[in-house]
Each structure stands twice: as structure tokens, then as C-alpha cells.
Design a protein that fits this description.
By secondary structure, this protein is an alpha+beta fold. It folds into 3 domains: about 10-80, Roll (Structural Genomics Hypothetical 15.5 Kd Protein In mrcA-pckA Intergenic Region, Chain A); about 90-150 and about 235-260, Alpha-Beta Plaits (2-Layer Sandwich), CATH 3.30.70.580; about 155-230, Alpha-L RNA-binding motif (Alpha-Beta Plaits), CATH 3.30.70. About 25% of the residues lie in helices and about 25% in strands. It has 7 helices and 16 strands. The chain has helices at about 10-25, 30-35, 45-50, 140-150, 170-175, 210-215, 250-260, and strands at about 30, 55, 60, 65-70, 75, 80, 90-95, 125, 135-140, 155-165, 180, 185, 190-195, 200-205, 220-230, 245. The strands form 4 sheets. Strands 7, 8, 9, 10, 13, 14, 15 and 16 form an 8-stranded mixed sheet that branches. It has a 4-stranded antiparallel sheet with strand order 3-2-5-6. The longest helix is centred in the first third of the chain and has 17 residues, at about 10-25. The N and C termini lie far apart (about 75 Å). The chain binds uracil (URA). Uracil binds next to helix 6.
Length: about 260
């Protein structure tokens, strides 16, 4: 028999009710707030993205009102991961010549990771030859790096190429239509010659030494090669050897580029 002197006994059911109610309370942050904070637009715009079924959380299409834990949940818009996990960094480096694109060089040469902060550890997205200059992304976001470099996404890369001699219209046409290399025909490219011997070339494949081999194939060896754009990312004021973090808008544009390409 219960005695009224037992103080715990009558309160236990109430406590259990509270515990049950607490479990049902929504936790985490509202999805539209998390999206808005990562640059996907106003909360209203983000609500529309959710309503249109373009946002998934851990693979499931999210409903309006959904709450998420940005540290645990995998959030994607149109299939592109939203970089909401704290600790992810995205650097844009203007790589100078003479620096190797690797995390660690076996010959002790200076590497691109030596030019950016050492913590957290980042790795280059794709590679530029030791003699190539220009824009290179470094990140610890493996998902995004994989998507950018994966051939199926075909993110555009634009190069300014100083070549030997002046390229004829026929040479430009060959670059545009595709050049036969020892690993097969290159995909159509955008090619123009803003001044004699200087080409602007946009490709979306990432084959080894591709631009140099394409130019060799049309009889105009490369004298200087500078990457000037990666998808939507460009920067004319970053000096060789300097780096900066991508802005939220740039991260978003990049995520969109890999999702739509
Ligand atoms: N194409 C090349 O030939 N070299 C690079 O570094 C990048 C693209």
C-alpha cells in the first residue's frame, strides 16, 4: 500500500509525462534558417526551396517545418551538399609556378598546402602542374571536392594560355571541336584568341596536362599557363601565393554548379 508520506510516489507519473513531452519537443534548428545562414537566400526563398521538394535531409525530401542538427544531418539542395558542418573550410589560392599540387611532396619541394593555414588540414581540389599558375581550391570538404573533380559534373575551368606563335582560325576550330590526344578525343571546348599567341580556353574535363597537350597537338606549345576560373569562382585581385576564404555566396554558387552541371 502506498503511504502519503512517500514523497516520490505521487510525483512519478507527472515526471514521466514531462520526460515524454520533452522527447516530443522539436529539437535542432529550422531547416530554412540553416539554409539561409549558408547563403541560399532569404528564409522565404529557402522555404520555397523546401516546398518545391529540392531539399533533402539524410537522403529524404524535407518537409516545411523540418528541424535539423547541422552537425549531424546531411543536407542537400538539388543533390549538392550544403556546407553547414562547422569546421569545413574553403580556400582559394593563386598558385605560383614552382609549387607542387600535392599534400606532401616526396622530394621536399614547396607544396600548395604550405601556402595556406595548416589547421584544419586541407587538400587541393584537382591539380595544376608545377609550371601552371592560377586559381586552385583547397578544402577539407571531401564531398564537394569529389563532386568538383568528378568528370560527370564537368565543372568549367578557364585558362589564359600563352602559346608559341599565332594560332590560325583552323587551330582554334580544332581546339573547339576536340583534339585527338593519346588518351582519346577531347570534349568540345570554348577557345578564343584575345591577342596573337594568347588563348582563352575553357574546358570541363580534367585530364592530366590537358591544356598543354591540346596546344602541343595543334602545333603551339604552351609558354605560360594560368587558370583564371573554376566554375563560378574567379578573382583578378588575388596575387600569386596569396589565398582567401570563399565567401558564402561563392560556396553556394559552387554547390549549385556541381549540382546542375
Ligand atoms: N592543363 C594543363 O596542361 N596543366 C594544368 O596545370 C592544368 C590544365
Amino acid at each position: 500500500m502506498t503511504t502519503p508520506s512517500d514523497p516520490d510516489e505521487p510525483e512519478a507519473p507527472l515526471w514521466e509525462q514531462w520526460a515524454e513531452q520533452r522527447k516530443q519537443l522539436p529539437t535542432g534548428e529550422r531547416l530554412q534558417k540553416v539554409l539561409a545562414s549558408t547563403g541560399w537566400g532569404s528564409r522565404r526563398t529557402c522555404e520555397e526551396l523546401i516546398a518545391e521538394g529540392r531539399v533533402t535531409v539524410n537522403g529524404d525530401v524535407a518537409q516545411l517545418g523540418r528541424r535539423v542538427d547541422p552537425e549531424q544531418d546531411r543536407i542537400e539542395v538539388d543533390g549538392a551538399p550544403v556546407g553547414v558542418k562547422p569546421g569545413l573550410v574553403y580556400y582559394l589560392l593563386n598558385k605560383p609556378t614552382g609549387v607542387v599540387t600535392t599534400a606532401k611532396d616526396t622530394h621536399g619541394r614547396r607544396t600548395v598546402v604550405d601556402l595556406v593555414p595548416s589547421e584544419p588540414r586541407v587538400f587541393p581540389v584537382g591539380r595544376l602542374d608545377v609550371d601552371t599558375e592560377g586559381l586552385l581550391l583547397l578544402t577539407n570538404d571531401g564531398d564537394l571536392a569529389h563532386r568538383i573533380t568528378h568528370p560527370s559534373h564537368g565543372v568549367e575551368k578557364e585558362y589564359l594560355v600563352h602559346v608559341k606563335g599565332r594560332v590560325s582560325q583552323g587551330g582554334l576550330r580544332r581546339l573547339r571541336d576536340g583534339v585527338e590526344l593519346d588518351d582519346g578525343l577531347t570534349a568540345p571546348a570554348a577557345a578564343s584568341q584575345p591577342s596573337p599567341g594568347v588563348l582563352r580556353l575553357t574546358i570541363h574535363e580534367g585530364r592530366n596536362r590537358q591544356v598543354r597537350r591540346m596546344c602541343d597537338a595543334i602545333g603551339h606549345p604552351v609558354l605560360r599557363l594560368v587558370r583564371t576560373r573554376i566554375g563560378p569562382i574567379t578573382d583578378r585581385s588575388l596575387r600569386p601565393g596569396d589565398w582567401r576564404e570563399l565567401s558564402t555566396g561563392e560556396r553556394r554558387a559552387l554547390a549549385e554548379a556541381v549540382a546542375t552541371s
